[in-house]
Amino acid sequence: MIPAGFVAWTLLEYLLHRFALHGIEPFRRWHLEHHRDPAKPLQTPVLFSLMLVGAFVSLPFALPDAHAPALFAVGLCIGQVSQEIVHHRLHRTDSPSNRWLAARWREHGYHHEVDGNAAYGTCTGFWDRVFGTSPRQDRHIS
Ligand SMILES: [Zn+2]
Ligand SMILES: [Zn+2]
Questions:
Q1: Which pLDDT score, from 0 to 100, does residue 43 have?
Q2: Which ligand is nearest to the CA of 87?
Q3: Which residues are in the Fatty acid hydroxylase domain (predicted)?
């Protein structure tokens, strides 16, 4: 259940980024601040993240058998924390030496600098491929 929760988080992250952070106010306004100035510390998304984690942790206990949902929630939380760590690294200016991280770094740079309607995934480009929002090969950043 933990890996299932982690995979579910990557999809949730994609959907939240694409449809909430780029579509719904006030999340959109807060998120576009991050697009304009990634280095600027943002209080609200941290609160947003804490609310998400709080929901993941408390929801399983509303169910009659909390065991499997609690493990699923652990996977969601691991996904959330990994995403925060990876996203932080993606905003350093030096390209990572790890191949996977370097690819994520290029795609996130593309999302910020070339096309905000593509490359929504932080930890994986899988959901971008599934939903047709991968970076266009002819529009790569230098
Ligand atoms: Zn970013
Ligand atoms: Zn964005």
A1: 52
A2: 1
A3: 4-133
Tokens 């601040």 correspond to: 33
Query: In angstroms, what is the span from residue 97 Cα to ligand 2's centroid?
Result: 24
Question: Tens digit of pLDDT for each residue in 82-106?
Answer: 998 999 999 998 989 999 999 999 9
CA distance 94 to 90: 9
Residue 45 host element (H or E): helix 43-58
Instruction: Report which bound ligand comes closest to the CA of 27.
Output: 2
Compute, in angstroms, the gap from residue 33 CA to the centroid of ligand 2: 10
Percentage of residues of the chain with pLDDT beyond 90: 56
Ligand with an atom nearest the CA of residue 120:
2
